[in-house]
């Protein structure tokens, strides 16, 4: 045996490919660079042990409050894996994190990601980061770092998961929430791009296990394949919400994620008040109808699992509703007055849906 040969154990023999990881980092650098805000330009760069952000930028605030959130995209990653499409799931990740942060009125600042794979395929990892970077641009924040972890033996060679954490900032006296909401306020609904990133365990069970549908199956109502519909990226509302704050006196936002519209809206409704949302003001869309019919899922079960076509809610004074709708329309976002804030009365919950969906 030569001096360079060995029969001992090694990291590579255990399934971890360090060189592939280094290659993935090189491939993703071009995308991360596109997300740089002025506060991170020239500081460190990708590959360091920590991401850097120039906090002197916060001097423009009288009393800056930092807002943070962390999230993933759930079992939607399995649709991406089966489709072999990796450059959209990052949009979902940014939306799930940064749209939570903007709810309190905070401006997104920076984000980090965590990508866990069974085996590092550099091009795949770079594609995931490309999607995250593009999402960060849409949210107005910087991607300052992250981690790619290879877990052979725990995940299959093609399996992966993603998670992320973000930070934003809001002036203390501009903090949004339940204490600002008043009787008579208008509830503005902002259209979802599709299922977004919640409820995919139900969706997969209904469409695949029960209905026997295939990802490559053409669906006439969608005008594309089922897989393409299910992979539609989650809409990122961050900059739309910030624009709304500049033109109207927004009282609160609610990001419609797990739990559905009523449960998430109730989180920002104060004691003594109630939000009534009229289903007849919108039609949820074909994908929600398909899931309901294919699985014979009751409407209330759908509504507490899926967003039903509304991804973000804004609560504004009634006399600001028209300006709010104009602002959102100018940004290409479909929105409408879906309800109002009233005294709670006999209601035991903070928000309810009434009526039937528009056909």
Automatic annotation (TrEMBL):
- Indicate the enzyme's highest-level EC class: ligase
**Which organism does this sequence originate in?**
Streptomyces ficellus
Does Nucleotide-binding appear among the keywords?
yes
Which superkingdom, per the lineage? Bacteria
Keywords from the UniProt entry: ATP-binding, Cytoplasm, Ligase, Nucleotide-binding, Purine biosynthesis
Supply the source organism's classification: Bacteria, Bacillati, Actinomycetota, Actinomycetes, Kitasatosporales
The catalysed reaction is: 2-formamido-N(1)-(5-O-phospho-beta-D-ribosyl)acetamidine + ATP = 5-amino-1-(5-phospho-beta-D-ribosyl)imidazole + ADP + phosphate + H(+)
One GO MF term on file is: phosphoribosylamine-glycine ligase activity
| Cytoplasm keyword on record | yes
From the Swiss-Prot or TrEMBL record, give the protein name.
Phosphoribosylformylglycinamidine cyclo-ligase
């Amino acid at each position: 045996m030569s001096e360079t040969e060995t029969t001992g154990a090694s990291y590579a023999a255990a399934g971890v490919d360090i060189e592939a990881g280094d290659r993935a980092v090189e491939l993703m650098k071009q995308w991360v660079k596109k997300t740089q805000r002025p506060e991170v330009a020239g500081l460190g760069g990708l590959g360091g042990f920590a991401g850097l952000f120039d906090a002197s930028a916060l001097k423009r605030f009288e009393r800056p409050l930092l807002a943070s959130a962390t999230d993933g995209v759930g079992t939607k990653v399995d649709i991406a894996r089966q489709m072999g499409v990796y450059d959209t799931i990052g949009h979902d990740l940014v939306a799930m994190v940064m749209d939570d942060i903007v709810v309190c009125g905070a401006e997104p600042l920076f984000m980090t990601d965590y990508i866990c794979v069974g085996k590092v395929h550099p091009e795949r990892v770079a594609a995931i980061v490309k999607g995250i970077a593009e999402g960060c641009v849409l949210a107005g924040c910087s991607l300052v770092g992250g981690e790619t972890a290879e877990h052979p033996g725990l995940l299959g060679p093609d399996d992966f998961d993603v998670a992320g954490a973000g930070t934003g900032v809001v002036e203390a006296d501009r903090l949004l929430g339940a204490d600002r909401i008043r009787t008579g306020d208008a509830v503005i609904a902002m259209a979802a791009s599709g299922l977004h990133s919640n409820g995919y365990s139900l969706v997969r069970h209904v469409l695949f296990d029960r209905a026997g549908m295939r990802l490559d199956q053409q669906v006439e109502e969608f005008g594309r394949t089922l897989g393409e519909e299910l992979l539609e990226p989650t809409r990122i509302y961050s900059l739309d919400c910030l624009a709304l704050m500049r033109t109207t006196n927004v009282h609160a936002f609610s990001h419609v994620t797990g739990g559905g519209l009523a449960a998430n809206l109730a989180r920002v409704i104060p004691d003594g008040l109630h939000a009534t949302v009229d289903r007849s003001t919108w039609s949820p869309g074909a994908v929600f109808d398909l899931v309901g019919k294919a699985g014979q899922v009751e409407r209330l079960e759908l509504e507490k699992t899926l967003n039903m076509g509304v991804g973000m809610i804004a609560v504004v004074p009634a006399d600001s509703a028209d300006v709010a709708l104009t602002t959102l329309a100018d940004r290409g976002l479909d929105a409408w007055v879906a309800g109002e804030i009233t005294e709670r009365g006999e209601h035991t919950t903070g928000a309810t849906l009434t009526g039937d969906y528009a056909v």
